Amino acid sequence: MPGTVNQAGAAAFEVLTMGRVGVDLYPTEVGVPLEEVKRFGRYLGGSATNVAVAAARLGRRAAVITRTGDDPFGLFVHKALRGFSVDDRFVAGVPGLPTAVAFCEMFPPDDFPLWMYSGPHAPYFQILPDELDTAAISEAEIFWCTATGLSHEPSRTAHLAAWEARGRNKLSVLDLDYRAVMWESPAEARRNVHEALSAVNIAVGNLEEAAVAVGEDDPARAGRALLELGVELAVIKQGPRGVLAMTPSETVSVPTYHVEVVNGLGAGDAFGGAMCHGLLSGWPLEDTMRFSSAAGAIVASRLECSSAMPAVVEVLELMTGRPPHD
């Protein structure tokens, strides 16, 4: 199967992510219960994978570290990644396990139940520490992981090994990405997230995820709590109420961009890829947050996730309110 882990000759990636990959089967009918849906579209999915796709769509050299099944859906993952210009050298098949599959229901504007047919034995939880290309991890300009990757072994140990190899010398991001079904309890998730926060310098998540991580449901208090745990930038996404970003010396609050929501599931990943683009561009914090918010809004207005990730000109069009050629 293509895409076995290559320990030699790794390029210096601008964005390297690590975590979930799978196949999203989304209904083509909005507002229809899953048991009544007749047709589905097939898309590349998984939060860490979507962030890599979003960054690549914005022109960044991106790759993802993950695992599939050694099956036809695994082949689809490789083909889709290459189609999105995401390097798949760190994507390998796990014999005996099927590629993860997820279904969703769509009840706009804010109800999108997600049914993940993988569980604790999903291939993406089978990343082994000794399979990691630590040189590529260390050299990447941004290394992006999700808290879900800490919920099961051997993935958890592999994440800790990756952070140890990388150190805090470059931009390392933890997406708080809390999914209750993956954890025994919120307390277990909080313990693991606290350990991870000592190894990264950026934390990003929505208000619910921040509350699980630090026990605060107020955006400003949650942001301060994350900073007190050692990160240099805390980003709290608040849905229609916008985004709050905090550093030890700066606080930025930006409103959301109003769109007709079709599917909100990929908006956070689009935000993440756009945030990587802004950080790599050296933009002021407010500009980065506005650009990221606009990218997320665009994906929320579309059916798909990975294939809905916008190009730079599309984001600028939404931000300026006019076509890019005007």
Task: Report what the structure shows.
The protein is built from ten helices and 14 strands. It is globular. The model is unreliable at 1-10 (pLDDT under 50). By secondary structure, it is α/β, with parallel strands linked by helices. The longest helix is centred in the last third of the chain and has 16 residues, at 285-300. Strands 1, 4, 5, 6, 9, 10, 11, 12, 13 and 14 form a ten-stranded mixed beta sheet that branches. The chain has helices at residues 47-57, 72-83, 134-139, 155-166, 186-197, 207-214, 219-228, 267-281, 285-300, 312-320, and strands at 15-18, 22-27, 40-45, 62-69, 86-87, 91-94, 101-104, 114-117, 142-146, 171-175, 202-206, 233-237, 243-246, 251-254. It has a single domain (15-318), classed as UDP-N-acetylmuramoyl-L-alanine:D-glutamate ligase (3-Layer(aba) Sandwich), CATH 3.40.1190.
Characteristics:
326 residues; alpha/beta; UDP-N-acetylmuramoyl-L-alanine:D-glutamate ligase; 10-stranded mixed sheet; 4-stranded mixed sheet; 34% helix; globular
> Which oligomeric form is depicted?
single chain
What's the helix count?
A: 10
Order of helices and strands: EEEHEHEEEEHEHEHEHHEEEHHH
| CATH architectural type | 3-Layer(aba) Sandwich
Spatial extent as radius of gyration: 18 Å
Biggest beta sheet summary: 10 strands, mixed
CATH class: Alpha Beta
Structural class call reads: alpha/beta
CATH homolog superfamily: Ribokinase
How would you sum up the global shape?
globular
> How many E strands?
14
Helical content band: 25-40%
How would you summarize what this structure contains?
With 326 residues, the chain is an alpha/beta fold.
